[in-house]
Amino acid sequence: MDVNLELYKIFYYVAKNLSFTKAAEELFVTQSSVSQSMAQLEKKLDIVLFHRTNRRVSLTHEGEMLFSHVSQAINIIKSGERILENTKVLEYGELKLGASDTICKYFLLPYFSQFHRIYPKIRINITNQPSIRTIESVRKGELDFGIINLPYDSVPNDLNVEVLSNFTEVLITNRCFFKGTEGITSIQQLMDYPLITLTKETSTRRYLDSYFQKHQLTLEPEFELESIDLIMELVQIGLGIGFVIDAAVAALKNEDVSIINLKEPLPTRSIAFISNKKLPLSIPAQEFLELLSTNKAD
Length: 298
Fold this sequence. Notes:
The protein has 298 residues and is α/β, with parallel strands linked by helices. The protein has ten helices and twelve strands. It folds into three domains: 5-74, Arc Repressor Mutant, subunit A, CATH 1.10.10.10; 89-167 and 271-293, Periplasmic binding protein-like II (D-Maltodextrin-Binding Protein, domain 2, 3-Layer(aba) Sandwich), CATH 3.40.190; 169-267, 3-Layer(aba) Sandwich (D-Maltodextrin-Binding Protein, domain 2).
């Protein structure tokens, strides 16, 4: 099919923004030329790509199918451009990664600091989001790589996965407010207390749900929060008992907060590096992975 590739490029920006106006602004062309180009592409493909109304633009089913392929192609080209730029000089470039705020704060911060000292002119672009979104962003080629928590329900086969470090999830309580918790030894006993966890969309929450289900229980937390730090704050003021990672407790300086040791310990978890098998890692990403691997878990 004889289709000018420039039409696919314009289609990508319209579909990404769901706006002819914004696409025109990003491409530095007129809205009229964008509209004409899309009309031309639809004519050549003999399909309708957009639903057009006075107020909004949306993709048709066929448009969504085409966008899923075109966006991958555009991101592959962008990845190639980044690699070419980075091979000129490693002093310049960009590191694009995704990770949750917990992973950033309690695992990645020292690596960011070290990498920045070695390559001060390389921009570190962090997309802060749950593991499920990071996985999807890496699959689409929007990020060079991601750092996620394992176990995860299912990591797609088109991603490389490399375990970097292990950690454990622990249960903490404030003894001043919940004196009875010192005697808790079983997960069944937790059901009598207000529990605090991360939100349902996180891999950590799914991991905890699975842990409770394994023991024929249903996790029904009193509070569902966006961050580990907020969970610790609520535990410290006595609003409940919270699940956090062991590294967070190590950094806590409140003597009233202690760990509840259960006879059904939570399984060890891992932090892993993921990348797209179809896309080569940029030079900065390779250097960052090398840095991470120097302290890799056995």
